[in-house]
Amino acid sequence: MSDVSLYGPTREELRPLLSPRVRPIVLGALLPFALLLGWQALVTKHWLPDYILPSPRDLVLRFQLEVNGGRFWLDVGTSLSRVLCGFAIGSAIGLVFGLLLGLSRLAELLFGPLFLAYRQVALFAWVPLLSMWFGGGESGKLAFISLSAFAPVVVNTWRANRAIPEKLRELADVLTFGRLDYLRFIALPGALPGIATGLRTALIYAWIATVGAELFFDIAPGLGGRLNEGRDKFEVDLMLVALLLLAVLGLVCSRGAAFAEARLLRWRGR
Questions:
Q1: Alpha-carbon distance 171 to 169, whole Å?
Q2: Which CATH class name applies to 60-269?
Q3: pLDDT-derived band of residue 2, with 50, 70 and 90 as boundaries?
Q4: CB atoms within 10 A of CB 77
Q5: pTM of the complete model
Q6: What are the backbone angles phi and psi of residue 132, rounded to the nearest 5°?
Q7: Can you give the chain as a three-state secondary structure string?
Q8: First vs last Cα of the chain: how many Å apart?
Q9: What is the rounded CA–CA span in Å between residue 148 and residue 204?
Q10: Cβ 161 vs Cβ 99: under 8 Å
């Protein structure tokens, strides 16, 4: 007699899928899988024309065409290099400025209100001015991405330094720490959780700004440039492939930043 149940798999057979580690993966895949089936049904039943919504198979074929044509690696590499370069510049400047605001009452009084006023301006409102100052090429794109990474690092570093317990400040006074010693032994270790959060947020903002820079500045290699190309040529399959790649790479950046933050805080705990 067959061991297969007439009523489907038993609870014991499904137990591996119901484990706490596997369950989030299974549940997280249900909705995308259902959307994919619905998408394929819309195209198969001809409820939507192909030029409005290509089938998943068409997107796979277009993705293969992009990979085989060599443009894919150039665009992905260009976008990733932009986000990392802009993130490094903006976060480095933001870290120094945030420490200055957090460690100096005078600097906070002088520059704090100006920085808070700057934060009220939407990021994309700076595009025309940055285009005039740096041009619409690579310099303008990097300036825009750096600007997006700057504010989160400043805010979190500033707040983290202000939140350092007063007992540690008193201990530094008793030990007659100089400014460099205070920065090394008190300020940076004490503010590390906030700095890590700011860096993680800055990387996410930098990725969003990279897409915006590639869309709104001069057309150049990059996934945002391919989106513009797909729009101009009315190639919906190209635009959807670029959007899916942006989503995947953005998710990788977000998860990578969260992993790096966790490792950094774990190292601090030791």
A1: 5
A2: mainly alpha
A3: very low
A4: 12
A5: 0.78
A6: -70, -40
A7: CCCCCCCCCCHHHHHHHHCCCCHHHHHHHHHHHHHHHHHHHHHHCCCCCCCCCCCHHHHHHHHHHHHHHCHHHHHHHHHHHHHHHHHHHHHHHHHHHHHHHHHCHHHHHHHHHHHHHHHCCCHHHHHHHHHHHHCCCHHHHHHHHHHHHHHHHHHHHHHHHHCCCHHHHHHHHHCCCCHHHHHHHHHHHHHHHHHHHHHHHHHHHHHHHHHHHHHHCCCCCCHHHHHHHHHHHCCHHHHHHHHHHHHHHHHHHHHHHHHHHHHHHHHHHC
A8: 59
A9: 9
A10: yes
Q: Which tokens hold the place of 129?
A: 């001015």
Intervals of CATH 1.10.3720.10 along the chain: 60-269
Residues 35-54: b if buried by 16+ CB within 10 A, e if exposed: eeeebeeebeeeeeeeeeeb
One-letter amino acid identity for 125?
A
Residue 72 tokens, joined: 């894919």
Distance CA 158, CA 94 (A): 10
**CA separation for the pair 201, 254 (Å, rounded):** 9
5-55 tens-digit pLDDT: 555 555 555 555 556 666 666 666 777 778 878 777 777 777 777 777 788
Structure-token match 């993705």, residue found? 63
